[in-house]
Design brief:
Blueprint lengths: L1 H15 L10 H29 L5 H79 L7 E10 L8 E4 L12 E3 L4 E8 L4 E5 L7 E5 L5 E6 L5 E4 L12 E4 L16 E11 L8 E6 L8 E7 L5
Antiparallel strand pairs: 1-2, 1-12, 2-5, 3-4, 3-12, 4-5, 6-7, 6-9, 7-8, 8-11, 9-10, 10-11
């Protein structure tokens, strides 16, 4: 009995582990096949309907069917439009914002370019009055006939209240020479003290080492203009018996002897005697005459270097 039971159990186990026969198409493959078939059928139906729609008359059963289909699908189209509207609006907003940022950047660049051009024009306009004065001086009676004018811009004004020099944008390549007088459209500025190929340094009238022979046009009194106490200009070496009045204009005295020419030609305006600027002590030999220069030495935009037409031997 025990042997028979073991045989029956083995037979049952053997029958339970037998595998079923494979089907011709697995479930996944069959699903893919069905989907492809549906897509192909829909494409064929769509092409057929399009062909019939183009070839059919403007009225008929097919057009009625199309109208019914449009009526049935209209709620779905409306719903789809409403659902898509927020996304479309969001896209339009982002797109418009990007365009606005790009346009804003472009406009800022244009604004910077225009501001730079305005600054350049303003800089040129600021020099225009000085250039006009130089032209008038060059064409006026006070300009020395034996000299040519090299009109040039000031590129480095005095660096402070105690600085008595400036730099001009012309040098030996433009004909500027050492010890050439320098003027503005108002009057004498100083003298060239150092020359480079394309720039030059000018020592101003207010420099302590500057001395200019001068003449009072009203009284024909002669003296020396130089820096006095407190850094002001004075007309010195004027004997006390001569009369000098406030408001008298002073010009360069020029050359006394052709063999020993002065650095400054005759007739360049220097300044005028300051109001209340004439004094003398009882023990002094000479008058103390304060002079207000015509040229605004602290704010020069352009000057003219006077170069002699003939070199002195």
């Amino acid at each position: 009995m025990a042997t028979r039971s073991r045989s029956d159990r083995a037979a049952v186990l053997a029958s339970s582990v037998q595998r079923s026969k494979p089907t011709p198409y697995p479930s996944k493959a069959r699903s893919a096949f069905i989907r492809r078939a549906i897509v192909v059928a829909l494409v064929i139906v769509a092409l057929t309907l399009i062909t019939i729609s183009f070839r059919s008359p403007t009225a008929g059963a097919l057009h009625d069917l199309q109208g019914v289909g449009s009526t049935v699908l209209s709620p779905f189209q409306t719903a789809a439009t409403r659902v898509a509207a927020p996304f479309r609006d969001a896209y339009d907003y982002v797109h418009g914002l990007a365009n606005a940022k790009s346009e804003n950047k472009r406009l800022r660049q244009i604004n910077r370019d225009l501001r730079a051009k305005d600054l350049q024009r303003a800089a040129l306009a600021a020099k225009y009055p000085a250039l006009v004065k130089l032209l008038h001086f060059e064409q006026g009676p006070a300009f020395p006939n034996d000299y040519n004018a090299v009109n040039v811009a000031v590129i480095a004004p005095p660096s402070g209240p105690f600085s008595d020099a400036l730099t001009i944008e012309a040098g030996s390549s433009s004909g500027v020479r050492l010890n050439s007088p320098v003027v503005s459209g108002d009057g004498l500025v100083g003298i060239v003290s150092n020359v480079f190929p394309h720039t030059a340094e000018v020592t101003l009238l207010t420099d302590p080492d500057s001395f200019v022979a001068a003449r009072d046009l009203s009284t024909q009194v002669r003296g020396m203009v130089h820096t006095g106490p407190g850094g002001t200009l004075i007309l010195d070496q004027v004997p006390k018996q001569f009369k000098v009045k406030p408001g008298d204009e002073l010009v360069t005295a020029g050359t006394h002897n052709a063999r020993y020419p002065d650095l400054y030609p005759y007739g360049i305006p220097i300044g005028r005697v300051s109001p209340g600027g004439v004094s003398a002590t009882d023990t002094a030999t000479f008058l103390q005459v304060q002079v207000q220069p015509f040229a605004n030495l602290g704010s020069l935009e352009a000057v003219a270097v006077l170069v002699p037409k003939k070199q002195h031997r």
